[in-house]
Structures are given as C-alpha cells and as structure tokens.
C-alpha cells in the first residue's frame, strides 16, 4: 500500500516479453529493485506462476513429465493468468507497480508457433488487465541459444524459438517498446528503468485500467 497514492492514482502494469534466454527474468528483478529504491513500490509477477495447482500442471508439462494436447496447455496458461487477475488489480489500485515476467503475449506467441490459429489463441485472455507498457527484449534466436544454453524445458530449442520470434513479430504493435537485448545487463537495465519511470508517473496521475484485446 502506498500512502502517497491518492484517489485515481495507481501502479503501472508493465510486461516484459521475449524469447527464452533474452534476459527478462534478470531485468524484471532489477527493475523492481530500482523502482523500490526510487520510492515507487513495485512487485514482481511471473507467468507461468508455478506455485498454484494450475501452475504445477504447467510446470510438469514444461518438464515433459506430462503430455497435454496443445489447446489444453494453452488454456491452462491462460487460466494461470486469470487466477491472478483480481490480486493484480487490487495491488495496482493500492499504488503498487507490477513488473510482469511474461503475460498473454507469451501465451499467443508460443502456442501459435505450434500452428494454432492466432485469434483462437487470443480469445481466452480477452478481458485480462491490459498492460500500460510492453517491453520486448529483442535478441535473435541464435544469439539467445548461445547464452549459457537452454535449461532443457520444452520449447527451448532453436528451431522452435525461430517460430516464436515470428509470432511475436505478428503480435507486436506500435505501442511496444523494443529493447536491444544484445547489450550489457547494465545498459539494458538503465534504458528500461528510464522508460518505465515515465509510465509509473503517468499512472500515478490517474489513468484508467483497461482490458486486454477488448474494445
Ligand atoms: N509460455 C509461457 C507459454 O508457452 N505460454 C504462456 O502463456 C507463458 C506465460 O513457458 N518457454 C512458455 C514460455 C517459456 C515457458 O516460461 C516457461 P519461463 O519464463 O521460462 O519460466
Ligand atoms: Mg525459460
């Protein structure tokens, strides 16, 4: 709860997206710390959130401990976001900025890379909270694969990541900020922090929350 956040004021919903090994997870953690230090309360969310029952089903699928139909796993990823929606909304309204490591865009990018129809993929996430800002950490699939190797989870393969990169290209719009993720961790961190601060300030001054992929 941020006591300096008066009526209309809220936290910003900031989403980081990108291929596996693009640096999202380190950057999300650094961003939360930077914002906190600057006096803007911030918390980290991460999807999939493997701590819930649905999250455990997802985790077991990603580790290849279970097999699921492509549409079934897609819907589980979406349900895993829906189960956090009201918590996220209450935190935002309490003035807390949320830094979210992957969101519905990952859902669509990874599932459509398997050949599922993009509109079908978007449908279950319609009406989730719409982010105020999407940061896309841009790195080539080849470069990402050179970074310390993949962790052996499903999807962590160069040929598949190339398809995911194409899906993200279809999905992105002019509002996304494309961050060159080939630079040092510190350079990327600095650029992200400056962009995000602008959005945090705008949301504190009152900006209505909207819903994803709905008019
Ligand atoms: N992933 C993530 C999906 O396929 N759909 C989704 O909706 C989300 C949120 O899960 N390779 C994929 C992308 C990743 C994998 O994510 C695990 P992470 O950020 O590596 O824990
Ligand atoms: Mg990963």
UniProtKB/TrEMBL annotation:
Any one GO molecular-function label of the UniProt entry: dTMP kinase activity
GO biological process, alphabetically ordered: dTDP biosynthetic process; dTTP biosynthetic process; dUDP biosynthetic process
Pathway the protein takes part in: Pyrimidine metabolism; dTTP biosynthesis
Superkingdom of the organism of origin: Eukaryota
Annotated InterPro entries: P-loop_NTPase, Thymidylate_kin-like_dom, Thymidylate_kin_CS, Thymidylate_kinase
Annotated GO CC locations: cytosol; mitochondrion; nucleus
Spans traversing the lipid bilayer: none
Entry's EC annotation: 2.7.4.9
Keywords, comma-separated and alphabetical: ATP-binding, Kinase, Nucleotide biosynthesis, Nucleotide-binding, Transferase
Coiled coil: none
Keyword Nucleotide-binding part of the UniProt annotation: yes
Gene3D superfamilies: P-loop containing nucleotide triphosphate hydrolases
Family to which the UniProt record says this protein belongs: Belongs to the thymidylate kinase family.
Record's protein name: Thymidylate kinase
Organism: Daucus carota subsp. sativus
């Amino acid at each position: 709860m941020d006591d300096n956040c008066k009526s209309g004021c809220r936290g910003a919903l900031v989403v980081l997206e990108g291929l596996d090994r693009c640096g999202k997870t380190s950057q999300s953690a650094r961003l939360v710390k930077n914002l906190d230090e600057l006096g803007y309360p911030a918390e980290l969310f991460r999807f999939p959130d493997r701590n819930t029952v649905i999250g455990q089903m997802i985790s077991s699928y990603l580790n290849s401990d279970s097999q699921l139909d492509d549409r079934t796993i897609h819907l589980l990823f979406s349900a895993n976001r829906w189960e956090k929606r009201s918590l996220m909304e209450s935190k935002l309204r309490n003035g807390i900025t949320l830094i979210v490591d992957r969101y519905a865009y990952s859902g669509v990018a990874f599932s459509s890379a398997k050949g599922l129809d993009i509109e079908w993929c978007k449908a279950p996430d319609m009406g989730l909270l719409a982010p105020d800002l999407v940061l896309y950490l841009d790195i080539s699939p080849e470069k990402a694969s050179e970074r310390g190797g993949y962790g052996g989870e499903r999807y962590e393969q160069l040929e598949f990541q190339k398809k995911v990169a194409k899906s993200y290209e279809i999905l992105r719009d002019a509002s996304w900020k494309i961050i060159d993720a080939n630079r040092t961790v510190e350079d990327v961190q600095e650029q992200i922090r400056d962009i995000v601060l602008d959005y945090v300030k705008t949301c504190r001054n009152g900006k209505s929350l909207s819903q994803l992929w709905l008019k």
